[in-house]
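Predict the 3D structure for this chain.
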Amino acid sequence: FLFVSFPEIDLWISKVFFIEPTIFALTHSDERLPIIGYLRQAGFAITRITMIGLFVLIIFAYFFRRSRFWQNRKKLLYVFFCFALAPGLFVSVILKENWGRARPAHIAEFGGKMEYTPPMMRTNQCSGNCSFPSGEASFAFCFLAFAMISRRRPLLIKLALGYGVFFAVLRVGEGGHFTSDVVFSALISLITCLTLYRFMFEGAYRYAQISTWAMNRTPTKLRSLITDRLSASDIAEEDAEKNKQHSRTIHGKTNMGADTSHTHRYGETGANDPVSAPKGGK
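Done. Predicted structure below.
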């Protein structure tokens, strides 16, 4: 709430990076700081690959239930929902398209034509893809979801937060966002990741009841398709396990029979067995 009480903080920080009208310290083009453009494109590529990869793995897990992806399906769904909800729905669809806040490079204080608007005030200075909040920063901070499901959580949390801070500074430094934009984006992503983790893995917020309710509200044909698919897969797994047990039983009986035959053979020919041959005598 610091930015709400002191909205001028946004202008102070952006002035640190300001060079000339519409140009900031990290503003890039083909001639000026092209590396910044490459870094942003790399960030976009990582995000796309992550989302597509998660979707493909979830579909793969559903159709191949013996794979390790099926065993980790809840983790895959958790990460996918974190990205889909925080940067996807909340930031990019609901807020950015409806808040109307102009970017730093577009306001009069930095050579533009739009008016500066405090972070929590809706306005009409932008018609779409506006400054508040930052989509790239939100996507970057959302990589915390991978850390939450990892055994190396402390290390990956640091890496995820560092990745998010890097893109947050990058966007502020090139005049694409105010500091409050990236801070609110970080909060949205972090709160979403933590809340979903509690919901899906710690059973908070009545996860079991809501899951049951959602399945009951699923259209009948789709629900039948899901349950039939799961039932068929369960039967296949049970049959496979029974076959394994049957094979082990037959193998055990075969070995037992071989051992018995071996012992019986020596009992019948004891006279020729150096161990059982009588000692002494004529």
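Residues 61 and 72 are 8 Å apart (CA to CA).
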